[in-house]
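The data are quoted verbatim here:
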Amino acid sequence: MSTVNTPNSSSRSNRKSPRENSNLDNTSDSHRSKKQKQQPSGSLSSSQTSTTVPTHVDFKCVTININGFSEEKWKYILILPIIQSVSVIILTEHHLSGTFRPKEVIDIRWKIWEVAGVPRQRRKKNQHSGGVAILYRDASNLKVEQHRITDEANGSSHQVISWTIKSPLIARPIHITGVYVSPSEGKIAKFLNTLTRQNHYHADDIHIYAGDFNAHVADEIETHITMQEGHTIPSRVGDCHKRHMPSPSAEVPITNTRISSLQRGHLLLRMLST
């Protein structure tokens, strides 16, 4: 799981749970086979032109804060090197309605499913705050089931949506919980409890929390991760400036008022450790 910021967008989220940051690599051989099949047929030997059907796929997911969808930003995203091999893109703060399908996405045969934040007061067409979306190629052979949990329909500035992804090339379903946490709304502890309840899938399934939590966690990791497990999880790279370290528990309020990104960071780590 990688996090990318488009031009003119501010980066307010750190890398989240290691569950977000893993490339769920079942095999690299099938990935190479697909690359070979894309070469001009004249450059392949007879053995390479056999109808070898891949049995697995490298599932890669990238999270991008687009800070307002536009044709220019979408074109920039498409030329990023990582996008060439990515399976799905999670977009946060797209500022679209929950039903709008950008022509720029549909015309190049990508699919998009999204939830919206609350409408802006001086709203233009399809202009909402926040928002979370998943995008994937038509040709990816993925089946995506969407379940809305919290969005504008609930009157919340926070958004949560879950997607279950299935494919003949994926051994078990992959579940992604897409999140946008508004820095201007309180009730963070209650909202994170909602996120915790989404972790109800089969123990063998992969579940990823992905999105923009507007929380500073620096390079701290969850308390339940053992030293042995830590060797298999990618290193967390965060902003370790002293002004951006998560607050100690004694400083996290119990009220529903607006709290700082440092306090949100502590609550997020606490959620992931439960």
Summary: The chain has one domain: 2-23+60-273. Residues 2-23+60-273 form a domain with the Deoxyribonuclease I; Chain A fold (CATH 3.60.10). The CA atoms of residues 111 and 136 lie 5 Å apart.
